[in-house]
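Quick one:
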Amino acid sequence: MAFFEVNNLIKSFGKTKVLKGVSFSLEKGEVLAIIGSSGGGKTTLLRCINFLELADSGTISVGGKVLYDGTVDKKMSDTKMREMRLHFGLVFQNFNLFPQYTALKNVMLAPLLLKIDREENIASTARELIDRVGLSDKADFYPCQLSGGQQQRVAIARALALKPDILCFDEPTSALDPELTGEVLRVIKGLKSSDSTMVVVTHEMEFARNVADKIIFMADGVIEEMGTPEQLFEHPQSEKTKAFLSRSLER
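Output:
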């Protein structure tokens, strides 16, 4: 059984069906890149995985345990929702740091609220994570004193603070200029290890090609094509995939 499994997720908003039965699986330590045009369902899929939205049907499993079953969990309690979210870390497009707190305090905040350890241990771990993303000299800076790329790296450290099973990124470089994009992508690439399972929604084709173990191309709420970077980039089968890659790689 795979470490992370998503099976037949369906999600509608009113009469609009956004996800039309999405299924995939990942082994521990694998990186999945999700690509596709806007409106294809990528962000909705990520939000369902992180329980920011509840899928209408389908299942989500981690480590052989079913976390969500749309047939029985549609009215999940807030307590259970918070418990399920602890399996996932999410890095947003626009950083979402708390402006009133330093970089260090932003990383410490969730572990402090959940009282997972003594404050001095949480602070020590947070400093290690900030160092891991290359910002040890910025720990006491506030978000307004950091560049966009530095803010996103703090957001990555924050997502790692609760030691999630799956680390998710929603277009992590879309708000950054090309120079800052490179520094954030290098940090994400550096996180790749046998212990770090990642799902990255991205429009950076070279990053997907060089870092991902698997790539999903989504269109119109379904997985149009899925495979290794070599399969998808060198030998795409779907006409939609070919057209998307042709447009994307010309930019």
